[in-house]
Amino acid sequence: MAKGKHLKETPSVPENKKQKRKFNIINICVTATLFIAAAVSLTVFERPTSSASEKRELAEFPEFNAENLFSGKFTDGVSKWYNDTVPWREGFKDISAKINKCMGVSLGGVTVYGGPVNVITTTSAPTSEPDIKPTVTDNADNVVSDPLEENTVSEEVTVSATEAVTEAVTESVTAPYDPRNEVAPGIQTNGQIIFQQQDGHYRAVSLYGGGFNRDKFISTVNGFAERLGEEIQTYVMIAPCSGEYYLPRNWEEYSASQSEDIYYIADNLSDNVINVDCTSVLREHADEYIYTRSDHHWQPLGAYYAADAFCKAAGVDSPALDTYEKRVVEGFLGYLYQNTQDANLLNDPDTFTYYIPANDFKCYYYDTAYNFDNRYPFFLQMDPASSYQIFMGGDQKIVRVETDVKNGRKLAVFKDSYGNAEIPFYMGGYEEIYVLDIRYFDLDAETFLKENGIDDVLFTMCVFSAAGVNCDAMEETLAKRQ
User: What is the pTM of this model?
Assistant: First the structure.
């Protein structure tokens, strides 16, 4: 037999391996197609320039020049622009919010995520009982005593702050309407809870950790009022946030009492400081739309009721609400939505209603050192998501308002952002108003007020500011001396 090379036969590939190879090829093709389609869509389709939900302008395409190119700023800018302006970003955020809604741990009917929830240890009740000096009114809301003359308030009608908070709590129990749910399933995230109200709307509420700075607020205001002397009357009006009236009862142990801190401060103000109790006033209107549901601020309607209480205490005119021009903005989504990205809030946005005074007024804007900037409107055009910034556009300006009221009265308002919504309701009672933020003021406050002939100074802010971290900024602001 002839010798030759032995050739091995190539074994046939099993059928299942052939199928697997086909599937791999198909998978690679589909994946590549989707990747290319996504890349093309991100390049071709229109990119947004602003975010309604985040209330900001998105990154712009960077300027191309040699300096930016060689420093790396151009490529960094392109990367930031590309990532920040993804087409359909609001739709993707909505999908993400709905996915987040499915996450978390359910404890007793309450979905908890975003960190632990701590039980609040209640602070001790006020021990002193100095008299509050609000304007005393009869049942027809007619002023029957002068808040500037302490001796005109008879002993029978004098009410201490401690008694006032007890009465307010009693009223909240016996009143026919109570907006708080007995038990409401909710979501806690980043210090907020989100729940469905009895009326079917969703609301976000900030949990209140307690007033660690309330004694500093008291000493700061009392000291400043003493420096001002008798020629300028000092007022304090601290507003509670929405949790005071709407926090479900099964969440009360996780949030400190706002009214307790507010009345503690009122009890310990010096005799030359007049406290304006807007907490009880707002409680009377808690069944109205006085607080936003997606933001930490109140509605202008709530600010009106508070401002009306101050005007009565100060003895100046307070025009009726129906004399104002009413304007309505639909689709407001505020800070609490931005902070939680909750799908329920997204699909149930606020209606934001603000009011324009009937009398004439002019507004002048200055920087925080009182250097003139320009004359702008008080009410600015804003996207619905930024509705609360309609008032002066924010906080980082000194604003001077001249009105057609000819009574010679001048008001200075030291405030946080809560105070912005109050200012329109003072335009019918004062000839001139100075709007000063407690966080952004670079002058000697005492000298500024006296040089500008101020008659009344009002410290107005929410309890989170007065008894919290913003009190540090206020102390620093009022301590500045020339």
Answer: 0.70
